[in-house]
Amino acid sequence: MSKEARSRNMARIRSKNTGPELAMRRKLYSDGLRFRIHFGSEKIDLAFPKKKVAVFIDGCFWHSCPVHGSVPKSRIDYWIPKLRKNIARAEEKDKRLKDEGWTVIHIWEHSVKKDIDGCARLVEDKLSAIKT
Ligand SMILES: [Zn+2]
Prior knowledge:
Elements: H1 3-13, H2 19-30, E1 36-39, E2 44-48, E3 53-58, H3 76-99, E4 103-108, H4 109-114, H5 116-129
The structure holds zinc ion.
């Protein structure tokens, strides 16, 4: 594998500060919203602490999206348990947040790529529905 191909691969499977996450931050910020990133002990991707709204941008790879989630062909015995654990961890995180009164929104990476305006609207609608 060439050096470029390898770094492309690494970028593809990175889990934080990914393209879609950055794009959502930029979009919401330009819409005038202010939020915290990688917030709290649960490392919420985008958090609105006052309204207790937690937004997670779920990578299609890391969260095994039904459309694009695929397991790398090499080291399959490493990846399958790792991805399963990742999903289980995310579910536990959601449960803890909901128990603490947070509204949790998950947005697929592919939704951000396809319709970032729609994704932003989803977040904005949720926020405006919550009175503080
Ligand atoms: Zn996807």
